[in-house]
Predict the 3D structure of the following.
Amino acid sequence: MAGRGATEYLYFLLLSSVIGCYASSGSLSSGVKFITVFLQNYDTSAALSLHIISYQRPATVSVSVSMPEFSRSVFVNANSTAVLTLDSSFMLSGNEISKKAIRVVSNENISLIILNGRSKTYDSFLSLPFHILGTKYYVVTYTVDSPYNIKQFAIANGNERVVVTLRVAGSLIFNGTQYFDKEEFSFRMEPNQAIQFQSNQDLTGTKVKSTGPVAVFSGDQCITVPPSNCDHIAEQLYPVDMWSDRFIVFPLMMKVKEDLITIVSAYNGTAVSIRTSKGSWSRLLGEGSHMNFNVSGGTYVNSTQPIMVTYLSTGGSMPMVSSFDPFLVNVIPRAYFSSHYVFVTIENMHNYILLVSPGTSPSGIILDGRPLSDYRSENSTFSHYTATRIYLGETGSRHVVHHPSTHFAIYIYGIGRAESYGYPMGNKQFFTNEGDWGALTCLTQAAIFTLPTWALTRAALSTSDVHLVDPTCHAEPKDEDWVFIRAPFDGCGTTIVNETGKIVYVNTIYGTAPRTPIHRLKIKLMCEMSTTENITLGFVPHSNYVLHQGHYNISFTLHNSPSFDSPVFDFPYKTALNRTLYLEMEADTNDSGVQIFTENCISVPALSQNHLRYTIIENGCPKDSTFKYFLSHDPRKERFSFHVFKFEGHSQVFIVCEVVICHRTSSPNRCTQGCLPSRSRRGLNTWVPRGEPSRLAQGPLVFPSNLEGLRLTMNSEKGVRNYYVPAVALLSVGCVMSVLAVILQRKYYLHLSQGHSAPK
Ligand SMILES: *[C@@H]1O[C@H](CO)[C@@H](O)[C@H](O)[C@H]1NC(C)=O
Ligand SMILES: *[C@@H]1O[C@H](CO)[C@@H](O)[C@H](O)[C@H]1NC(C)=O
Ligand SMILES: *[C@@H]1O[C@H](CO)[C@@H](O)[C@H](O)[C@H]1NC(C)=O
Ligand SMILES: *[C@@H]1O[C@H](CO)[C@@H](O)[C@H](O)[C@H]1NC(C)=O
Ligand SMILES: *[C@@H]1O[C@H](CO)[C@@H](O)[C@H](O)[C@H]1NC(C)=O
Ligand SMILES: *[C@@H]1O[C@H](CO)[C@@H](O)[C@H](O)[C@H]1NC(C)=O
Ligand SMILES: *[C@@H]1O[C@H](CO)[C@@H](O)[C@H](O)[C@H]1NC(C)=O
Ligand SMILES: *[C@@H]1O[C@H](CO)[C@@H](O)[C@H](O)[C@H]1NC(C)=O
Ligand SMILES: *[C@@H]1O[C@H](CO)[C@@H](O)[C@H](O)[C@H]1NC(C)=O
Ligand SMILES: *[C@@H]1O[C@H](CO)[C@@H](O)[C@H](O)[C@H]1NC(C)=O
Ligand SMILES: *[C@@H]1O[C@H](CO)[C@@H](O)[C@H](O)[C@H]1NC(C)=O
Ligand SMILES: *[C@@H]1O[C@H](CO)[C@@H](O)[C@H](O)[C@H]1NC(C)=O
């Protein structure tokens, strides 16, 4: 899968196509295949324009419809946009069962914005790529102030034949038969069919279920919210398995007439909480039920189970356009915030972008090459999020907005005299350490992955359906909200990827539908051990929000005899100057393929100084004349000895070493190379130990006398930083020898996809 940068080790792809293709999924706003429709507009002479956005590579995009027959290939240069317009003969009409599904297939990733309209009845939506379409939806339509207008939704099938089951809310007509509230009926949909359903009743809550992924679009043929005239609104719906449980909403325009959000639940007993600066509200929603809420300022919405939130701009008046019309957009869940978007604005509209970003300012976000502070903007902050609105003028153009790391959502919209359009953009989902969606922890001997119970619920899986490559290794409940699965590095199908110089343990979590070969969940886990680390008294790993930290338990044991069978644990270790020290480095892992190699060791009388040093090992080559290697039959252990010495005028000795960890599958490697005297890289001779006694100082410890050993183990199951194990052995002539602690840093790869089963 394509990486986003060398330091980004963590990918979370929630959205998946069929099993086996998970790597090509992950984006909510771009893809290579789309299926869309031209919903009936109030103005039946309206046109449909497809705005195609290309990215780094030029794209050849084919657009086709079965009936009326249409086929066109559009070439889009790299980093550009193209527009293809379809006339009103492709518009769905009434309760039509048609072959008017519009297929868009590209050889490269593109984004597709659909604009339906002609003067005064525009709306637009972001076409959701085929790979994230689902099999369960709930329709949303609006009756606000216009109870008799026509509400509608449409289903398009881009697959092979599927069976669709509708459970009606309100009333609708299919193939000449009228169905009433709560009635359920099924029908077959052939490939490339598009069916539109209309009603003068509110259809919100109508459930669409199908045996394969379909696309569902909903809205009103026309909605009238005074003072505006009849206006078309449309949006492509998120399938239930894309729903989420945390949303932050800000008003898109500053105006008197409040906009409203609609919250839809797919599960009984969904507790929805809404918080604004004016107070908090809670409501319990049942399956298929919904609630509306006026948005007068920043609004935080969360729920105990995934919900869908749509936003209706009710129109209004602005000096520059007098009055403008309503439009409908999805609210982008917090989980789909991303750091990079390309979008288009529409010619002859007053275009705006609203950015919703975490924190109290959108600092660092770059719009068309300039920081947001270069633009005239309005902003507001609520609940740790900031909304920034920027006017983008009246031209139809391509824009790029990005931030190196912060994830945000954007809403693009425009108003004109008695018209408007709007669409949102969110994108790939990422794991964060916050554990929003699940988290990977790489331990010394195993990886542990936790995921929220509702992620299983919505995939209709139980805990025991979740397993590793070895199907006998199952997930287990952790508590009410979380389940976990443990992938030991030496079992459950864990394999070691052979990358030179790296040890990567790989396993995959599957959520398998009971008694089928169908995977509804697929999460690839990778724990990468970095293979070379400094042994020092402290370790402050570099970390950012995608990089987890972990380590092996590595022990450094002092023995008092060359048989290495008598580790000594007590302090201080009293020994005569010029006696022999027997040292053993050991990687504490059950993986017998792991090899350990001490590349550099120096000794210093104090960690805070760097002028006095003595080299024991450099580039794997012994430098001390008394140094002796001992053969170890276990590559996870390394043994050597040298004679005790002291620095003139100093009573302590610290040893600082750099060890390399390898795996035999990547042989030849640094561990098998041994001494490399000519290596040009700097050895410890020229570097300053990273120890920072003031920060790390818990020692030197004072130990009871007469004891002869030293054993230190650095460890933590949780990837502790700033870990420090001081140890001091008192050498006879007043020498204090303080030794080491080892932390090996691990980088974690995480790769998760979740989605639909493969058609068999
Ligand atoms: C499209 O993007 C996805 C990542 O979002 C990538 O895995 C895939 O290879 C891309 N497809 C093409 C044709 O470039
Ligand atoms: C497209 O844009 C990207 C990023 O701005 C740039 O690196 C790339 O060179 C551009 N490609 C072309 C063909 O202009
Ligand atoms: C609609 O009804 C007709 C006749 O009852 C039937 O032949 C046809 O298959 C139906 N269409 C669909 C899509 O179910
Ligand atoms: C919500 O806003 C509409 C106007 O958009 C207004 O008519 C209605 O009274 C508001 N409802 C509440 C509860 O404030
Ligand atoms: C939700 O509750 C209703 C009424 O209590 C019940 O008829 C329905 O089957 C429940 N739905 C689910 C999915 O449990
Ligand atoms: C929703 O957010 C409120 C704080 O605004 C919090 O107290 C509550 O626990 C959250 N509920 C859920 C289900 O996350
Ligand atoms: C946001 O608004 C505040 C006050 O209204 C202003 O001080 C600040 O500069 C604004 N930030 C941006 C990025 O426009
Ligand atoms: C690492 O060492 C600590 C302390 O000795 C021990 O509690 C822990 O179980 C060890 N971890 C493993 C995986 O061996
Ligand atoms: C060990 O520390 C030195 C000095 O800080 C640094 O140059 C070197 O890259 C470190 N080695 C590793 C493997 O981090
Ligand atoms: C140190 O030990 C070596 C070998 O064991 C011996 O030759 C040497 O004389 C000793 N030096 C002192 C100062 O004891
Ligand atoms: C390592 O292997 C030993 C013996 O084979 C076993 O007792 C121990 O539990 C294993 N450790 C882990 C973490 O799997
Ligand atoms: C592992 O990779 C190394 C270097 O790329 C190669 O020489 C070796 O044959 C590989 N081992 C296996 C088992 O694939």
Q: What stands out?
A: Residues 56, 78-79 surround 2-acetamido-2-deoxy-beta-D-glucopyranose (ligand 2) (CB under 6 Å). The first strand starts at residue 10 and ends at 16. The chain has three helices and 57 strands. The CA atoms of residues 129 and 168 lie 26 Å apart.
